[in-house]
Amino acid sequence: VLDAKIVQYEGFIEEVLKRELQKSLDEFRKGAEVLEQCRELRRNIDLLLHDNVTELETMVDIGCQFFVKAFVPDTSKIFLDVGLGFQLEMPLEEARDFLEHKEEFICSGLEVRKRKTAQIKADIHEALHLLDLMMQVKSGERPWLS
pTM for this structure? Predict the structure, then answer.
């Protein structure tokens, strides 16, 4: 009976908890990348507004690290991805404000993911502790008496 429980706990740790942990960490990394992109875009918008740039020449990545020159004749408006596949054209000032709110939203989501990840790590730790206790009992020790 004890051997079956040990195998069951080992399987649960490997197949459930570690997968959940990996998934949670991947979601956190994706959210952190989006947050960094928002911050970078907001810094660029701040530069455009501060320096009063009206037109811009730049290089655009069109995929696979292949860049082409691009000329932007009017920098007063920008298209932003507002979610669910929708893009919205807005003035730079509104875009900057929108990005500030989006950053706050992403940060709150990252905090939730961070707590979820910590809980999964605690669950793994507890399961490993229980597994260790079962192994001690199997070897004839009495860990509850020590």
Answer: 0.79
